[in-house]
Design a protein that fits this description.
392 residues, 2 domains, Pnp Oxidase, Chain A, alpha/beta, 14 strands, Rossmann fold
């Protein structure tokens, strides 16, 4: 990279001081704000500073620090990238900064956000999903295992909710299941932490002509009790949350209680949950001596890198999950998804099967419904029934 342009007194070097070591980075500056670019979504340094909300930095070797936030507004991202183009010139900009995974602002001298642990976690989560909302469909459809997960969950949702129902969805993402169910005739209230994801879902529903059946709520799973205040008890015919939102809550009991109050007696709840015990990882990493990865899901929370998600997450076993929901719900059905096939971050192994993938996927689906294999999928799909009686 060529030397950056700028006044003679402008800092020329920036090093990020992390517990794991020093990371030299390019940067742009505007007043008291520094801007950093993470080119690769798998880079660890952005998640390390976003996790704590603060960056410790050495400018020309002089230590300083500041509060960190992710820039998710497209116009602001574009403006900041313009600062990098001006500082480094067109060739280096195109090589290093033109297509960033994350753009961060460091407010030098500002204290880190004054959040509690859970609130700061959700703030980080909100920014990550706002940041990927526009490309989230490509993330799903571009990965064979992710497509399989969605196909299995949609099949289970259609089995669980025959006919038209009023449903509540927790963590809709970009609407991969929402839209098909709206088109099936359901009315759905969706709750998601990302306002940009909700924008994507509303626009999809509008284009498909089913927008009148959709209502959106900006919030987290932990905020579900507010829906009881808004709609009252026993107002939904069913509910679901697949592959994400429930694994972003350390304490599921309040979530289960809120869903138990929102759903009618005997109503079904379908949950897609990141499993604490994954057979493919236990065997695959164990046989190659990578014991920390084989047991990686036993940590609480599971850190970025081991979890493969953009934030730390909380994994639950089938037993753990059913116990947390047991006061309000009884378990009707469990299936591992997938069991024999690899998780989505190891999709390259699945691609080796070529034309035999579909045959193996059908076998995986059969195996995934049988004990004990249904307990050891990458995720599990659990269908529960709301117990009889008035909610407590």
């Amino acid at each position: 990279m060529t030397n950056p342009r700028g006044p003679a007194d402008e800092p020329r070097s920036l090093e990020l001081d992390l517990p794991t070591g020093i990371v030299p980075l390019g940067f742009a500056r505007e007043g008291a704000d520094l801007f950093l670019v993470g080119r690769d979504r798998s880079a660890r340094w952005p998640t390390q500073v976003l996790r704590v909300g603060e960056a410790r930095i050495r400018l020309n070797g002089v230590p300083t620090r500041g509060a960190v936030e992710m820039i998710t507004d497209p116009a602001e991202r574009s403006r900041v990238l313009g600062l990098f183009r001006e500082r480094y010139g067109e060739p280096d900009f195109e090589r290093w900064y033109a297509r960033p995974a994350r753009v961060l602002r460091v407010r030098i001298g500002a204290p880190p956000p004054d959040f509690g642990v859970v609130d700061h976690y959700h703030d980080w989560l909100r920014a990550e999903f706002d940041n990927v909302a526009e490309e989230y469909d490509r993330h799903i459809t571009g990965n064979r295992i992710n497509r399989l997960l969605r196909d299995r969950s949609l099949s289970e949702l259609r089995r669980a909710f025959p006919g038209a129902h009023r449903l509540v969805e927790v963590g809709c993402g970009s609407g991969m299941e929402t839209l098909p169910l709206l088109e099936d005739g359901h009315e759905i209230v969706v709750v998601d932490i990302s306002s940009r994801m909700l924008d994507v879902v509303r626009e999809k529903a509008r284009r498909s002509g089913v927008g009148e059946r959709l209502e959106t709520v900006h919030g987290t799973a932990a905020q579900l009790p507010s829906l009881v205040d808004r709609w009252g008890s026993e107002t939904f015919d069913g509910g679901y949350s697949t592959y994400g939102a429930l694994n972003c809550e350390a304490n599921l009991v309040p979530v289960a209680d809120a869903l138990g109050r929102l759903l009618r007696p005997r109503a079904r709840l379908v949950a897609g949950v990141y499993n604490r015990y994954c057979l493919f990882e236990i065997l695959g990493y164990g046989l190659t001596g990578r014991w920390s990865r084989a047991a990686g899901r036993l940590r609480t929370p599971i850190p970025v890198g081991t979890s493969r998600f953009c934030v730390d997450v909380f994994a639950f076993s089938v037993r753990d999950f059913s116990r947390r929901f047991g006061r309000r719900f009884s378990v009707e059905r469990v299936q591992g998804v997938p069991v024999v096939l690899p998780p989505s971050d190891l999709v390259a192994y699945a691609e080796r099967f070529g034309t035999g993938f579909e045959r193996l996927a059908r076998w995986d689906e059969t195996v995934g419904t049988r004990w004990p294999f249904r307990l050891f999928g990458d995720h599990f799909l659990m269908t529960l029934r709301r117990k009889e009686g008035r909610p407590l």
